[in-house]
Design goal:
Elements: E1 5-14, E2 24-32, E3 37-42, H1 46-52, H2 58-72, H3 85-92, E4 100-102, E5 106-110, H4 113-124
Antiparallel strand pairs: 1-2, 1-4, 1-5, 2-3
Length: 128
């Protein structure tokens, strides 16, 4: 029988107008300490972004969002990517008042963190 593991996750959001607190969910960061798993998936829906904030350059937003999975994977070209996985996760989920933010940290249980990440992407990011 597979072992059940706890994990922490946060939803990545694009917040075009910080003062209005409107946002688009664009990804999920998931950390499972017992499985030594830290990963993020990002999917920017440019049509939704254009409808909500036509003044934003989607390429600039995408460039910043692409850093998140790289940091999770330990990309040494970014200083944060050189930290231990738990430190990278905590740095990524620290509250910010910029146009790219994360939700509060939530917890869950899984047997396969990659499968849990995909499930969260389907439930929290993708329009069904």
């Amino acid at each position: 029988m597979p072992t059940t593991n706890s994990f922490d996750y946060a939803v990545v959001r694009v917040v075009p107008y910080v003062e209005r607190e409107e946002f688009i969910n664009v990804g999920v960061i998931l950390f499972c300490r017992t499985q030594r798993f830290l990963a993020a998936k990002i999917e920017l829906d440019e049509q939704r972004l254009a409808a909500m904030a036509p003044q934003l350059d989607p390429e600039k937003v995408r460039h910043h969002l692409e850093l998140i999975p790289r940091i999770c994977s330990g990309d040494a070209s970014h200083p944060i990517g050189q930290l231990a996985p738990a430190e990278r996760f905590h740095w990524l989920v620290t509250p910010r008042s910029t146009s790219i933010q994360v939700s509060g940290v939530h917890t869950g249980l899984c047997t396969d963190p990659a499968e849990a990440l995909e499930h969260l992407m389907q439930a929290m990011v993708r329009l069904c």
